[in-house]
Amino acid sequence: MERDAARALRSQGLTMPAIAERLGVSRSSVSLWTRDVPFQPPTRPDRRAWTPDRRPSALHLRKLAEIEQLQSWGREEVGSLSRRELLLCGAMLYAGEGGKRDGCVKLANNDWRLVAFFCTWLRQCFDIDEHRLRAQLYLREGLDLEAAEQFWSRATSIPRSNFGVAYRAVPDATIRHSKHVHGCCTVRYSCSHTHRAVMGVIAALVDADPG
Asked: Helices 16-23 & 27-34, crossing angle to 10 degrees?
């Protein structure tokens, strides 16, 4: 069960975002499942090798505690979004990350949470034909395409039959190894009317009086 796995990982000192990413679930679910599990910051940072005589500094532990505290604060402040709030938040996400060319609503990202948010926004705020939603992966050679498609299909609720041929990037020894084992996902919805509606909301937002 994902709930039991989340609780076990939490008891091992993993942060809620790390658990959500590992299990492919939302942070809110992890928060609900593990709210009564005592949190102890790990004695070893994820990206560095520590020896018994080299422990995390007090500054590092304070940093972990502050991140955890402010993430909890953020979840409490945001809470549940109304449809209007979802519309506005999604429009600002699209203003920064979405495709601007007329005729296609498109967003690409390697953070599954942003892609999932985009799909929810598109479905709930616009009148779309679900069958026309398409996804395509950008994946480095050597990574598991089958697992990546399954992961992104769950995240986006787009069936794998609507996935295009994945683009495989040739390994390049001069750049760092990618930590994104599931690659980058592009979601497309080809519809001029929907794209113009999206851009209309964005235009209204940037022209609105913030006072």
From this structure: 120
